[in-house]
Amino acid sequence: MDIRNLTERYAVSPQIAPEHAEAIRDAGFTTVIDNRPDNEVPPELRTEALRRAIESAGLTFIANPVVGGAITMENVTAQGEAVAASKGPVLAYCASGNRSSIVWALSEAGQRPTDELIRITQRWGYNLEPFRPQIDALANSA
């Protein structure tokens, strides 16, 4: 498991497995967001398998599948709402952590400067520069 803290309350990770649930809880997370569509993973890593493991560890589990190259405003809104509703730190995962970073940054548009959002994710190797126009547009409409 490779947890990458973007902020004190939000971290991303590449794909997790059911056996990581207790370690995620012990690391202080209260909510896990699954940003990976089921068609990308084998049955043992699909949404319901992870939901059972995460909820058995006493954590909140949110499924918000994000299709690479096809992020929707519904994805962005769901991510922002899940983070806002969480009683503590959130861990979001996908294949590499990139999509989880993108939907987070888009959901934070207008709450943090665009440069800061891009810089935060860049520390972990996620290039959100191509999303600058979308982040700016969302910030201007907030």
Automatic annotation (TrEMBL):
Q: Does the keyword tRNA processing apply?
A: no
What is the residue range of the signal peptide feature? none
Superkingdom per UniProt? Bacteria
Enzyme class label: hydrolase
- List its EC numbers: 3.-.-.-
Give a GO molecular function annotation for the protein.
hydrolase activity
Entry keywords, A to Z: Hydrolase
Which residue numbers delimit the Beta-lactamase hydrolase-like protein phosphatase-like domain? Answer: 2-110
Q: Entry's NCBIfam families?
A: TIGR01244 family sulfur transferase
Name-wise, this protein is Beta-lactamase hydrolase-like protein
